[in-house]
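Task: complex structure prediction.
Instruction: return structure tokens for all chains below.
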Amino acid sequence: MKNKKLWTGLSSVFSFLLCFAIIGTNCALGYASTINGALGITTSKLVSTDDGDTTDTQYYKSEYGELNGDNLKKLIEDTHEQTITEEEEGAVLLKNDNNALPLASDELNVTLFGHAVAQPLFRNSSAGSGASTTEEGIDLYHGLKNAGFSINDTLFNAYLNSPTKRGVAGFNFATQETSTWSFGEENISFYTNDLRASWENDYNDVAIVMLARQGGEGSELYMEDPQEGISQLALHQEEKDLLKMIKDSGKFEKTIVLLNSGNPLELGWLEEYGVDACLWIGCPGEKGFVGVANILTGAANPSGRLTDTYAVNSLSAPANVNNSYNNQSWSNLEEVLANTGDSEEEASFYAVQAEGIYIGYKYYETRYEDLILGRYNANGVAGASSGNAWNYTEEVTYPFGYGLSYTTFDQVLDSVEVGEDTIQVKVTVTNTGAAAGKSAVQIYAQTPYGEYEQKNLVEKSAIQLLDFGKTGLLQPGESETLTIECDKYLLASYDYVGAKGYILSEGDYFISLGDNAHDALNNVLSSKGAQGMVDVTGAAASGNTEKTYTWTEKFDDQKYSTSETGVKVTNQFDDANINNWIEGSVTYLSRSDWQGTYPVAVPVALTEEMMKIYNGELYEKPADAPSVSDFTQGDNQGIPLVAMLGVDYQDSLWETFLNQMTIEEMASLIADSFGTKEVTSIDKPAVSVGDGPDGIGGMVAAFDEAKYGFTAPTNCYTSEGILAATFNKDLMKRRGELMGEEGLFLGIMEIWGPGADLHRTPFGGRNFEYFSEDANMNYLCEIPYVIAMQSKGVNAGPKHITGNDQENNREGVACFFNEQAFREGSLRGFEGAVVKGDAHALMQGFNRLGLIGCSSSTALNNQVIRNEWGFIGHIETDATAGATEGYKAHYTTNITAGTDSYCLDFSGTSAMVIAEAITSTDDGYLLSNLRRAAKNILYVVANSNVMNGYSTNSKVVSITPWWQPTMYGFIALFAVLDILSLVMLTLSLIKGKNRRSDRREGGQAA
Amino acid sequence: MKEMMNNKAVGFYFAVIAGLVAIISIIRYVAWAPAHDGLNSLILVALIAGLVIDIVLFFYDNSYLIVAATACYSIALFQLLADSVGSFVDMFQGIVMFGDSTQVGTIISISCFIAVSILASIIASFMKRVRD
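Output:
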């Protein structure tokens, strides 16, 4: 009996373990690349067949020399220094009454207020570097301590020990933190008498208040948050109580507010609470708080300028009407859902971008000009925060480009030379103050808005950023002349109605040098002889005509009618304009009538024809598709991948090279799981990629201890908004170089970044990963960053192309727009990265362009990106996660629409589906697209640093990761033990049965 | 019935606990999974099969059946966890991409119930379920 119990129990235990081993192994194999990455396993290795080969195979060299531990330490130090410098130059001083900053050496006894001081926002949650916790990073407290501050530890420790936590929706199992959103500020009752006593007689030189706003990937900031039902960007009651407490205490000589946020807050309250100085610090990354401390002490002089408008009311932008939390569901939603294979979340929502081009300052400043000039119903109540006549001062707290310094500068517009393709602007900057500092030179432009434009719905921003530069550190009295070559192309407007292409409008053009967009516009208005202008404080302003230059252009619809590749640029996205499906659905915001065209919610019911397209599986094998047998496969010519390094993309050798591969081998490349597997037949090694943009994340987010003798996480840089706010292209270039160097030391072939979408609304959860509300700013920031990163042999992959700039409903949201807004807005940042920066990779957005997903859009991928822009490289989806249903699973449609690879497809679903579709239907057309995708992917691999060390004598050999045979071993072990236990159980049962039978027989005999 | 119960040993009651907790697991899983696109028929079938076996064990004791019940609950547990990897990844990464990190708490609680059934079944396996 005992044996029976034992064997039954052991059978149960081994059955349990066997189930674990089988299901666990199956699951692990599906995430093999993830596990390999986590364990630092590479699934291929290099074997050289000729030891005597002396060819230099270091195709991409590090500026630090050999890739060893000592040099890695130097690189890490430089990345930290870069982060500090970015913060010093990118943080924006918004208010500085009576020179409250910098603090004097006898003003360093301070109390830190606000829960964020104990929970600083190094970065928002997203991909990118993991070096953003207090363990890796330097927080405000330690940054100030190291700078010589004495800090009120009583209050700081109370914050640390408080159960209050700021959180976005989610659950951190490791820390057991909240699964729901929380604002994360302390209630006023937190400040007990004991705590208040801590600053009664000490630590009261300065009250430093840090306020944070957190979003993240998948986490849009709230337009009406769960705590108070108000904008998350507004001052909340707990913060009001805190600021009132500080003011009412009468103890502090100064109150300094730090805004720790990737999104612009509403700041109309600074005066009310007696705030002396306010500094926007964005998300400072791993070491950026050191830079914050340096600014507070004056060791660094702030020179950052805003790349977003700070509105009085964050809900006042017209883009808020239909975007973010104001997306609508189809009027016939039930019918739509009944006719789609997509989930309800993916198929329900749409955003009609009725704001057109008027995003951020382009709205506020353009309406301001029309208000000053008394035209176009600019003074209407539509869109006015007050509910009365629209008034600039009541709408804007700080305009785009705004920022203060500890010194003053005089900027003189020396000359403007308008050439055929460029406009050369010379500006002399003189430091007229008493402190050394840097000055951002902002070049703006205005282009004509006349009858043609109004008739053809060509909208014009009254002021637009054209280019920028930054001086070096100027000592008091010192001058520097900057020569800035501006791209004239940025003055062209896309006319989707009349010319159906880019035009240069007829009329007067203005170049304006300004301290910010509003200042620049006032200069233009002054040149026009306008009266009644106001400055950012609402005080009367006259503008400065000497800072403007004007000239006249004739109407020209030819100059930019073709792209640099010679391809005609014309309408490609008419089907993304809802008016072309349902006439009169939307009236796009037009400056010709602010009151009459201000956006309203747009109801849309999908028609039967629209639903057919919306369902998305659009690919059908063409009648004239070639046969699979028309293509050569597996014809090994002995050409290794490294032999393709530097081979022109159009070279016919690529076809011969591809002929060496089988369908399965090519298909294996398109399933990207932060890297691709090895293909030994062409000696292509397994490669890894990093995920940005504010640092390198993904599978390889730390340096290899075995290789370098120590490990460390990749650096977390400042948020892109801070980098852009530096207005310093050298810093953008250096960021690209350093991330490229990190990529070299990690041995990765590309990094997904920089981000290039817009801050369409102030609420974007990933605004911190994108540069600006201004598309031209995105365009200009991408170029140096991308070029520099790729100079290291690490390909740049700007993301997420495009049309969607929100996290709410990001998966599947149908974005409708007009083509002018799309080309001059959403596309522009990517255009800079590709056309000027030669980026070799692009990651798509999750959204739809009208009815068609970005991944399924031939117009986007093939016509615009490849044909117009001349893109060479691979275009990848956002994370499909091996989807087997829904719009992400339209693999054949996507690949034939120009998509090359599928992000985070751990299970290889895309590869299986496409290979199966090709072979089962003998679809040579699909195979030709697979060959194109494979070529694009291999082109990028071949032209990257992962080829370092490879020569034509090298062979790539597969390595089976140790954990896989181990897992199989466990299955075998538990299976054997389970079977043995069951056999022993059976024997013991038989034995017991026999024993009982014997006993019965014995009993009968007795 | 009373006579039948008088014949039961401690192991029997562990099997009963396994079955009762399995009922809770089934109810919670069925109430949760369809609403979150997470219904896997294998998990449901395994849970129901484990429960049916426990019901049979109520009337008829068999060593193979208690082993089978353990296996069924084990399949359900590990498949649920395997299906939920994406949610765990999101949770640890702090992103919203592969699953639904807000559901991790529910997933863990359902998993805990199933784990109790497994544990009770294993204990029942090592013990007498009917008196000699």
